[in-house]
Amino acid sequence: MRHTLKRKPFLLVFFIFVFLMYACGGTKREFNKRDVKRAQNLVGVAFTKKQLDTLYPYLERNREGFDSLRAYELDYTVFPAIKFDPLPLNFVPRPQDSFPIWEIPTDVELPANKSQLAFYTIPQLASLIKYGKISSVALTQFFMDRIKKYDGVLQSTITITEKMAMEQAEKMDAELQAGKYRGILHGIPYGVKDLISVKGYKTTWGAEPYKEQEFDMTATVVEKLQDAGGVLIAKLVSGSLARGDVWFGGKTKNPWDIKEGASGSSAGSGSATSAGLVPFALGTETLGSITSPSTRNGITGLRPTYGRVSRYGVMSLSWSMDKIGPMARNAEDCAIVYSIISGKDAMDPTTTDYPFGFDKNKDVTTLKVGYLKKDIDKDTSKSKDNMVKALEVIKKMGVQMDSLELPEDVPYSGFDIILRAEAGAFFDNLVRSSDVDKMVEQDQRSRANSLRQARFIPAVEYLQANRHREVLIEKMHKLIKDYDVIISPSFGNRQLVITNLTGHPVIAIPTGLDKDKHPTSITLVGNLYDEASILLLAKAFQEQTEFDEMHPEGYID
Prior knowledge:
single chain, Amidase signature (AS) enzymes, two-stranded antiparallel sheet, globular, Amidase, Amidase_dom
């Protein structure tokens, strides 16, 4: 395969009898010809008795190969030799301008009610720090105090990194006094999803078997934010092994309605940012985990192009689908954070060095925009009215929009094979050791059950799914190549599955509240490596509306 398989195909193919391996236990289990005959029904093949007799010794050798591999420990940081590349045939990245220079306003004042600081944007907080109206130490303590006050209900935080935070904040204040200013994030607190490693602190992955886990490394994204002057104050909840909003300590709540969860799996990042416990946070997405909690909690979430942001030091769920992105107050805040965390990293072989090229002063009416009219028209959710109103706002901004439809004739239901097979490989030891039984959720839709069934996915079908993925990449490129932005519902259509498979960037932006007073959103889809266009349109939309300035009641004293 051109993209998905960059080197020789698997020598150790699970073939159709993968469940004859260790399945769920650590004890070696023998198999016989009757097992092999019955196994055919699982994968939909039928061989003759003579053929089965012929292949049986081969299966025994396969089993020996599996056992030999398991004798060697694999570090969590090891990527497969087979790497995913989202580029379509003859793809040429769009030319981008130089690195953006962020403006810091000079007229920002401390609010009379200090608790309102919780909902200031990054430029506003940067102004207060740069011009000496608040110290980084004071701001850091302010946000940590908010976590301690509100997190008993929200359950959005796993670890407060207090010692590290205060040391970094003191350092930032001292540097500022000495005339050294690192840039717009200088002295500003933030949080990260607890899939992201930080040396000296636990990285629990939200799961009971790993709740005491600690790595002797700090993820590249954290190092980049620290170098830019950011102050890490919290490791925020990840749903257990990046699924949902349930973790070993409970269920993360939506601050707009604590009777419902914050959605997952970047639940803590969504909840904490929405409630003003952190100014911004990092989340991860494989199949909706930035988009969903950003929508549920009424914030803005950017999921960059696959490979734009290093995943070194971050738990893998799917090597070919995972992405890291900012979750923040608005699109400009997302752009600021993204500009710092993106870029090539020698420790992550999937990363790229394409320029960002965001120009917030570019005329938004020069963008060529499409919208998924058919999907929007047939939407029956409570968010539809706000979606339609958002389109009207964009039209009034002078943006011309064409009606488009997503690719069809694609086996969408089969693509989950890719995620589940790759997750099964990463968590192989967890399943075979039976530690997977310790996870809080054990129902049919739980991560634990998903990892167990991954043992029954044949390598042949995994590769076939990736071949169909190649077809989808070309179809999606054909649709979007003549546009800068495509506007889509955030949920209820195929967009979320398609863009996570093809690696296209998206941004989810709030569009108000539904009849139940719950936040709603729309999603803007961009070309590969063109986060600049979707951020530009999102920022322009937010300048015309106040939805990004909304925050849940009860979080200002």
